[in-house]
Amino acid sequence: MSGETQDHMISKNLYESEKQARLDAEKLLEAKNQEIQDMNNRLMAEAEAVRSALADTEAVRLRETVALKERLILSEALKALTGKSGADEAMQALLDVLKRDIGGRDCFFVQAEGDHTIVSVCADRTHHGHALPLPAALIDRPRRIAKLPSLIEGFSWPGDVEEPASTMIVPLELRDEKPGAIVLGCKLADRYSSGDFRTLEQVAKLAAQALLALRAARRNELLLALIEGKPLEHSEAVLDAPLEAVHNAFSRLTEMQGQVVGILDDLLGSPLHAIDNAIDKALARMGALTDTDRVYVFRLRPEGDFIDNTHEWCASGIEPARDILQNIPADMIDHWRAAFDAGDDILIPDVVAMPDDAPEKELLTEQGIRSLLAVPMVEHGIFRGFVGFDAVRALRTFLPGEVYLIRSIAKVIVSVLARRDAEEKLVRAHAETVSQRTRLEAVLSAMPDLIVELDREGRFVSWHSGAIVIPADTFAAFVNRKLEQRLEPELARSLRSKLEELDAGARMVSHTFEIQGDVPLVGWWQMTASAIGDQGYLLALRDISEDRQKAAEIERLSEIARRTTNLVVLTDAQRRIEWVNTAFERTTGYKLQDVVGRNPGTFLQSENTDQATVAKIRAALNKGEPVQVELLNKSRSGREYWLSIDIQPLHDESGAVERYLAVEVDITHQREQAESLRRAAAEAAAARANLEKAVEALRDAFVLYDADDRLVICNSRFRQIYALSAPAIVAGASFESIMRYGLEVGQFPDAIGHEAEWLADRLAQHSEPNREFEQLLPDGTWLRVFEKAMPDGGRVELRVDITELKLSEQRALADRAAAMEASLDGIAITDADGIFTYTNRAHFEMFGYATEADFVGQHWSKLYRPDEVEWLQANAMPAIERDGGWSGEILGLAKDGSPVDQDVSLTVNEDGGLLCITRDISARRFERAERERLLNELQLAQRREMIGQMAAGLAHDFNNLLAIISGGASLIIEATEDESPTAIGASRILAASDQAAGLVKRLLTLGARQSERVNLDLRRPVQEAAELVRSSLRAPARLSLTVPPDPVDALADPTDVLQLLLNLAINARDALGGAPGTIAIRLAPVERGSNPVSMTVGRIDPARRYACLTVEDDGPGMPPDVAERILTPYFSTKGDMGTGLGLAVVSSVIEDNGGAMRLTTKPGEGTRFEVYWPVDAVVTAKTSSASVKDATGRLDGQMILVVDDQPEVLDVITAYLEAAGAEVAATTDPFDILDALREEPDTWDLLVTDFDMPSMNGAQLAETAKEVAPGLPIVLVTALAGEAGRSGALFDGVLPKPIDRHSLVLQCELALMSAIGQQE
């Protein structure tokens, strides 16, 4: 075979090989094209499904919004305000309705607090009591504010959120309350319309009326609870706080009264030797009762020159001061002495607030005292010391009633201390007093007398029967009954006349009378009576029937002595016991045989027996005189008991004392009962006085009847209401007599002409246990009457003036009609025949009519074309009959014949007519069409971007392959002789590579869209994107949008911004996965120089200005391994539901516009994307200042670093550079380049880098290399040359793959020459 034939065969084989390679490449391109087409079809189908879902969601949302916000808000507000137990509950329900139906970030009821305002009630319960940066002056009138900044420094909006962009403030006037207002705030600008504002004003009027009514009802509840003594559930309500505070204060004072009575009893009942211990216990109880930290007693010495801390109690953790507060000079309290001498108290609520020149401030501050109360102890007008209360841990205030009770304790303390100081004197005085009282009670007990107490009206109150035993049922029959009700008429008149003599001034009267009949008190009685002040009368009744039967009585008394329950003792003249009765044995525990011959005093007296009384007995008996005393004795078992002893000497015929007879009555129970009765009488008197004051303080009419239906008490307001009947409204008057008098004087006009029937009905109603009704008086006053039976048979009644409430109801109805007339929706009402009976202005103007008269009396079919009427009859009317209502969209007919595109809601009224609410939706349809157009454009841009992403990835891989092929062919050509078969084959390969590179360039144009950047306000596309995302959200997911108030101007393509935000927001929505969460979109300008350095995508150019677009969600976040791959094309966390190109598109858009993005995420903490969008022109890549004509085509001696992640491409570039004479250090890892630069930054002359590398891209490498070696020139060799434009001025030269040796060497030489020129 010749050489020519061989060459021909080699050429043919090369040709066939190149042809097959080209065919394989075309098949690969065709397969990729088909894959791209399939992907495009799938994306278009998914986009269409998303668009359809968005459209359906938007329609549902609009219908729900219209139904909830525009049609039912007033009725919902009325529902929220009715049926509530208190004003705060009603206000809370109202705010919930306003936040839900009008909308906003939150809804408050605020009240003025000084120069600022506080949240009293809030839709968000956690914000109650929060101080707002809202001046009190801004809530004095209705306001609608576009942007409400923080106007008071130091205060913030609840939750530390930004100030609202839209705010409505409407005052809410409540009597006896601080100025208040309803405040609605929203983050969105222009959120509230004028219709929302008018609606809120109407709601505020209704709320004011309803809250006043609720407060009136609450006040009546409190008053009834106060009167009946019933417990009332404690309330923390803000609006009811004044009433609750009064009730709580009264309850606190009532509790303290009961405790103080016990303390006083303990002090008064304490033995003299235990007075100090009793005082210490009293101070401890008062400390706990008043919630103070230290309670103490200071006493002034008799000389008056020093005072001492004699008693002290300290709470746990409080240091005692008693030991150091001794021998205190009395002049240290001179500044208090004048007040103490006058009997006044010293009350210091806040020590810190005292003037600095106050003499006691320094001393009190040193002791840590914050509040102080000092009550003087005064005896007979002379200052003896004071009782003090210190509050150390917290400030403490004292009610006047509390101070009064403390003052009573101070009086008792000084009294018992004075008694102890003068013990012997008091003992003698006490002995004399006891002796006198004993004689009196002995006389009463020993004598067969009956002591009876009557009140001022002659009612039986109590009696002391003495030796007379009165059955319990007899006492029950007399108690609370008048003389005339229980005695014979003649006897009752006689006794009444005697009482009248006492009223006339007589000190004592007497009367003898006989009681006949079958009653326990039958017989002859002698009465002695005297008045006991204002409390009534005291009657001493002695049965004198025994004087008539003396002999028989003596015998009967002998038997009584044996059988009586009283103790009887018979002694001889030497006072030795001869005989005792059974009662003595039972009480003392000693039998007769145990005591015969013994003196009673030797075994019956105890250590507590009053020796003065014993001495009195001994002295009387020594004189042979009778004696009556009360004495404390002790039984055999050690039990102490009190006796009323009456000792009578028995004389013989000569008159000498022969024996002594002692009759002893056990009065232990009577003494205890008498003391209890005394305390009870005092408490009853005080309670009645308090009741009278409380009743008189009522604004409403109050009246109380007893069990006999007689008036007990009423206030002046009751007499004012029934002014004509006032003469008959007196204590003791019966209800029937008051009613009869009122009928006589015309008090009840509705009874005229049928007085008897009216009175019978009224008395029957009055007997009902509980009754509530309304009553209209002749002067037009409306009353609500409450009548309630009490457990004791009496009745309590309240008359509440509800005239204003009645007027408010009328005004509320008028306001409701005005609200319908002011509604922006058309409202019309028809009768059962479909004839219009009412239309508001919005309704008839919607159809082009001038007045309501054009509608009233006309059939509704007048407003529709015949075909629409027929459709409504066939479809809407059956639905109305079946479901009670129908809603939908339909075309109406205006007066001029033009169509009216409307949304109609029809509801059946109770009378069979229809309520029609309609709205013109022409503008809504236009807005919907515009939104659909915007969605279509966006979807087209997304499809193009996705196709471009796939084409770019394919082109990158192809260019790398072509770079290897063309580089190898070039090296073959250079290594072989010209026109050699190898050189010719290599040239053909090189030519084919150039053609393939052209195909790749055309491939990059697939789906490419040229960005049309214009000057625009970034807020507009951001708001459009937020609306599109919001329409696709479903509860419980929420979206918030924050944009600055001022324009953010930038050079950008609006579709790019929209595409970027939608991809990020939809990813955030999908991350929530249907769980509750919030997606936040924010736009904010960034100050120059404040941009962060570390970026996930792109880089920040310090010389440029940026705006920050943030998309953030509070979903599950991403683990680090997912976050690292999330921007990789075709990587998706959604499985088959995702394409994996959304965030790749975002990265492409950002880099195309020279921006940057930072990703922040962590599992469980949500995800945040921060996009830094440049707002000025793009900085173009640097151009070499060196001239091509100066190039030599050699790189001799140059130290060059080369990096490319494709080893084959790296080998080609290295061979090119080394062939030009350069010293090359090549690597596939960018971090090796950085390590070499850090070790020897001045050794290297040039860096040649690829762009798209796994661990670090070329821009990031160039940026870091510039930090290490600022003057190092860098040349970019990339399969996608467009990357250079995204990286600004980082590179000194850019070469697209595939490359040829000449271009590479030339570009590197020019970069080196330019760097040398810049250094010179």
UniProtKB/TrEMBL annotation:
Catalytic activity: ATP + protein L-histidine = ADP + protein N-phospho-L-histidine
Keyword Coiled coil carried by entry: yes
SMART domains: GAF, HATPase_c, HisKA, PAC, PAS, REC
Response regulatory domain mapped to chain residues: 1199-1312
Source taxon at top rank: Bacteria
PAC domain: residues covered: 625-679
Enzyme superclass (EC): transferase
Residue span(s) of domain Histidine kinase: 953-1177
Sections of the chain in a coiled coil: 15-53, 674-701
InterPro entries in UniProt: CheY-like_superfamily, GAF, GAF-like_dom_sf, HATPase_C_sf, HATPase_dom, His_kinase_dom, HisK_dim/P_dom, HisK_dim/P_sf
Domain PAS: 553-624, 812-883
Keywords in alphabetical order: ATP-binding, Coiled coil, Kinase, Nucleotide-binding, Phosphoprotein, Transferase, Two-component regulatory system
EC number(s) reported in the record: 2.7.13.3
4-aspartylphosphate carried by residues: 1250
GO molecular-function term, one example from the UniProt record: ATP binding
PANTHER family: C4-DICARBOXYLATE TRANSPORT SENSOR PROTEIN DCTB (PTHR43065:SF46), SENSOR HISTIDINE KINASE (PTHR43065)
Name this protein carries in UniProt: histidine kinase
Biological source species: Marivita cryptomonadis
